[in-house]
């Protein structure tokens, strides 16, 4: 399909386990965003890439969270030593141009449950 | 600290009537505002946006109003249709960061 895809759609992890969440943006999209959406809340900004460069990671809640986009397309969000408070839906979005007024296209999200 | 607030968690409207969803923000540096619609198990879908240099933007049945002095944003849907039933998020931007409200669940009753 032509949209943003994310995998896995659902992930159950034991506390302390490492997880990796994948985002495939729309082909050719320059900008990529990661968000965390807790139950009953709106998406909260985590980090932003322009091509392979991570320009803003101020939203990452701790040093257990790490994101990369090595070739400027697919991105991976890694969470080390998961904690129960990491349980949330992780959303990825991409835009075609650098301008922030470009529409962000969201993927369906990965629902992470940490037991 | 919630910089974008949607104080109504839910709203029910009869089909054909107007739906008004409200959003308040605290950061005067926000200069771009958006509304997204979200169905269960899907990511948010962009609806409409407005720059801070405008006070109104219209797209079909959807109109967004911005009152900068009151730091208030609203989305009007006229006429409302059952397919509009979803969660609506407002968002505000400064720089490359986007701040979302907690959402309002709209139910349009046939």
Distance between the termini of chain B: 38 Å
- Which stretches of chain B of 5+ consecutive residues score pLDDT under 50? none
Residues in helices of chain B, as a percent range? under 10%
Helix and strand run of chain B? EEEEEEEEEEE
Largest sheet of chain B: 6 strands, mixed
Largest sheet of chain A: 7 strands, mixed
Number of helices of chain B: 0
In total, the number of strands of chain A is 11
Order of helices and strands of chain A: EEEEEEEEEEE
Distance between the termini of chain A: 33 Å
| Approximate shape of chain B | globular
Summarize the structure.
The complex is a heterodimer of chains A (115) and B (110). Chain A contains no helices and 11 strands.
Would you write up a description of this structure?
- The complex is a heterodimer of chains A (115) and B (110).
- Chain A has 115 residues and is mainly beta.
- Chain A has strands at residues 5-7, 10-13, 19-24, 31-37, 44-50, 53-56, 65-68, 75-79, 88-95, 105-106, 110-114.
- In chain A, strands 2, 4, 5, 6, 9, 10 and 11 form a 7-stranded mixed sheet that branches. A 4-stranded antiparallel sheet of chain A has the order 1-3-8-7, with no helix packed on it.
- With 110 residues, chain B is mainly β.
- Chain B is 0% helix and 57% strand.
- Chain B has no helices and 11 strands.
- In chain B, strand 4 (32-38) and strand 5 form a beta hairpin.
- The model of chain B has no long low-confidence stretch (mean pLDDT 95).
- The chains are: A mainly beta (115), B mainly beta (110).
- The A-B interface holds A 4, 31, 33, 35, 40-45, 48, 55-56, 58-59, 91, 93, 100-101, 103-109 and B 4, 6, 32, 36, 41-46, 49, 51, 89, 91, 93, 95-103.
């Amino acid at each position: 399909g032509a949209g943003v895809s994310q995998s896995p759609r659902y992930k159950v992890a034991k506390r302390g386990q490492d997880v990796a969440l994948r985002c495939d943006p729309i082909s050719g999209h320059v900008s990529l965003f990661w968000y965390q959406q807790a139950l009953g809340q709106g998406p909260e900004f985590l980090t932003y890439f322009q091509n392979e460069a991570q320009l803003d990671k101020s939203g990452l809640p701790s040093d257990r969270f790490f994101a990369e986009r090595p070739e400027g397309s697919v991105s991976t969000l890694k969470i080390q030593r998961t904690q129960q408070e990491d349980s949330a839906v992780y959303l990825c979005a991409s835009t075609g141009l650098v301008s922030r007024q470009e529409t962000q296209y969201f993927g369906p999200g990965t629902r992470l449950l940490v037991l | 600290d919630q910089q974008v607030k949607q104080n109504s968690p839910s709203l029910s409207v009869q089909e054909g009537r107007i739906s008004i969803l409200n959003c308040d923000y605290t950061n005067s540096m926000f200069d771009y505002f958006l509304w997204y619609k979200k169905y269960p198990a899907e990511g948010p879908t962009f609806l409409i946006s407005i720059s801070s240099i405008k006070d109104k933007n219209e797209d079909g049945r959807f109109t967004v109003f911005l009152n900068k002095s009151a730091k208030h944003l609203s989305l009007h849907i006229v006429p409302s249709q059952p397919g509009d039933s979803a969660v609506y998020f407002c968002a505000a931007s400064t720089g490359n960061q986007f701040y979302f409200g907690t959402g309002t669940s709209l139910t349009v009753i046939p």
